[in-house]
Amino acid sequence: MAAAFGLAAATDLGSAGPASAYGWSRTLQQGNSGSDVVELQIRVGGWAASTAQQTYVAWDGSFGPATTAAVQRFQSAYGLTADGVVGPQTQSVLNSLESSDGSTAHFDWSEFYSADGSGFSGGKVGSTEVKENVRRLMYKLEAVRKKAGNSSITINSGFRSVSHNAAVGGASNSMHVYGVAADIVVSGHTTLQTYRIAETCGFSGLEAYTHSWQHTDSRVQYPSYGSGSWWWESGVV
């Protein structure tokens, strides 16, 4: 697995979420590099593994073996030829998962707003950075949804302002205050089943499945946020 860039570098490469269908300008395949590869890596981030594995698709702009494998899993799940080459057909399916406002097909920005009414403001990073973090999270959750048989997902808690996080008893270094975490409930699935799906989706933070929701976050991909270690509270299930 390639090392992830720090937040600043990752944001520079893929910061501005597309406001409409992303304009893929070329066929992408292993060996390519660039900002369009970062965008691809964001969109297939939830296809990091086929079984429980502490790994993720790095947002490093380098189309290597890990990105190829994630693309192949994505292609297979959507009935495409699983060759790892991102041509027009794969690009079309990738674009079908985005909305015109830059969110994704099955998630709205408002679902991730801080519950105290502050939107994406009041966190430990600026609202623009929070929104980009949420966008990247949405694509991982699209993969969870697909792997769960297209079951709907309820976001119990997404971004939290610092004050709201304190009010609900969240840890001071919670990934929620950066917009890289979500507590989810997958329709028709137990929390244990959701945990097992999340183990394949590149999440480096998973709270125990003994709650009525499943906490998911991508802490390892944001080393500047101060929590660079894997945390699967229930281990590998």
SS-based structural class?
A: alpha+beta
Spans of at least 5 consecutive residues with low confidence: 1-19
The helix/strand order is HHHHHEHEHEEE
Reported for the largest beta sheet, the result is: 5 strands, mixed
Please give the radius of gyration in angstroms. Answer: 16 Å
Q: Give me the CATH architecture of the largest domain, please.
A: 2-Layer Sandwich
Strand order of the largest sheet: 1-2-4-3-5
Assign the CATH class of the largest domain: Alpha Beta
GO molecular function: carboxypeptidase activity
Domain Peptidase M15A C-terminal: 132-213
Domain Peptidoglycan binding-like: 58-94
Keywords: Carboxypeptidase, Hydrolase, Protease
Structure, explained:
With 237 residues, the chain is α+β, with helices and mostly antiparallel strands. Helices cover 31% and strands 8% of the residues. It has two domains: 28-97, PGBD-like superfamily/PGBD (Muramoyl-pentapeptide Carboxypeptidase, domain 1); 108-236, Muramoyl-pentapeptide Carboxypeptidase, domain 2, CATH 3.30.1380.10. A hairpin with a 7-residue loop joins strand 3 and strand 4. The protein is globular.
